[in-house]
Amino acid sequence: MNNTSAEFIRVYIISRYFYLIIFVIGMLGNIFNLVVFCRKKFRSNSCSLYFIAYSINNFMNLTIGLLLWSLTLGFHYDWEYKILIYCKIRRYFTHVNFLLSSCLLTMASINRYARVRQAQLTENRDKYILFCKRRTTYIIIISIIIFCLIANIHIPIFFELHHGACYARDGTYHLLFDIFFLIFYAILPPLSMIIINIVTVIQIRRIKRLVHPTVSRREYHLILLVITHSVSNAIFTLPFTINKFIYYMCKNRITEENNQLAFTITLLIAFMNPGLSFFLYTLTTPSFRDEFIRACRDVLKKIKLYLSHRNAINNQTQQPIRDDSIFSLSMVSQRINSTSSVSSDQS
Hints:
Layout: H1 3-37, H2 40-43, H3 46-74, H4 84-120, H5 126-131, H6 134-151, H7 155-158, E1 159-162, E2 165-168, H8 172-207, H9 217-249, H10 256-275, H11 277-284, H12 286-346
């Protein structure tokens, strides 16, 4: 592939159109996620709080990440490569959002494991019950947010503009940041989620042998949702990590245009995880799909009720006007008749 065709695919097809398509679909999908998870059936479950926080974080992730990348790579708004403060702030919040998403999914996996253990045990289950309470979940989410903000505080300090790029300062910090990114973004979160979900599945198989299992159908569906999202998170983020690793290992043998094309494609794949989460939930989780259908029906009912109420108000406001006009016409006719009768009597 020559440089002209590679640049055309990278700039005009992927960065402009595909990025914006995933952005719009992702924003709408996360709105639908919030509608479903905030309904009474789901919001009473502590695990749903992690997905509510995850969907809210996706708004910032798609906006600060994907939309601004589209403006930079596709429309050549090179603020990130020219304005230092913009470079530092954007890269800081981009990494915060990525890390926060992984941490929330990891804690959702731990939450489902604790719920399964709670159903298994008859003794020493208080710590699992405490972990699954909503109050504990709120504290954990706030703690995760603070942790992600502090863990990435080095980015606005040591990131700088260098050779027309916004990245880590050359030298020791550059190497340390690559190791930090590899461990905390590429290896540790997916590996933790996979291990926790494997252990959860093993415990579920043991629960099915119980005479009276205490895990409801909705709990099983949430476990399925967490497992499938954890797997998709690993699948979607793996190409970006592999591409970055290959670039550092074979930096001198890869042309800059091919590197930018690979970066653009793998970045698009990475953002499919927050962008297509609604469709993943809908396809894999029956209770989520059923609740979304109920939510749509409730919205349609409210729209019909609003329209019927509005029509009733319009009819009520128009009816007195018609009566008054009829009454005024009758009064005018009576006066005309009275005046004509008086004139005939006088004649």
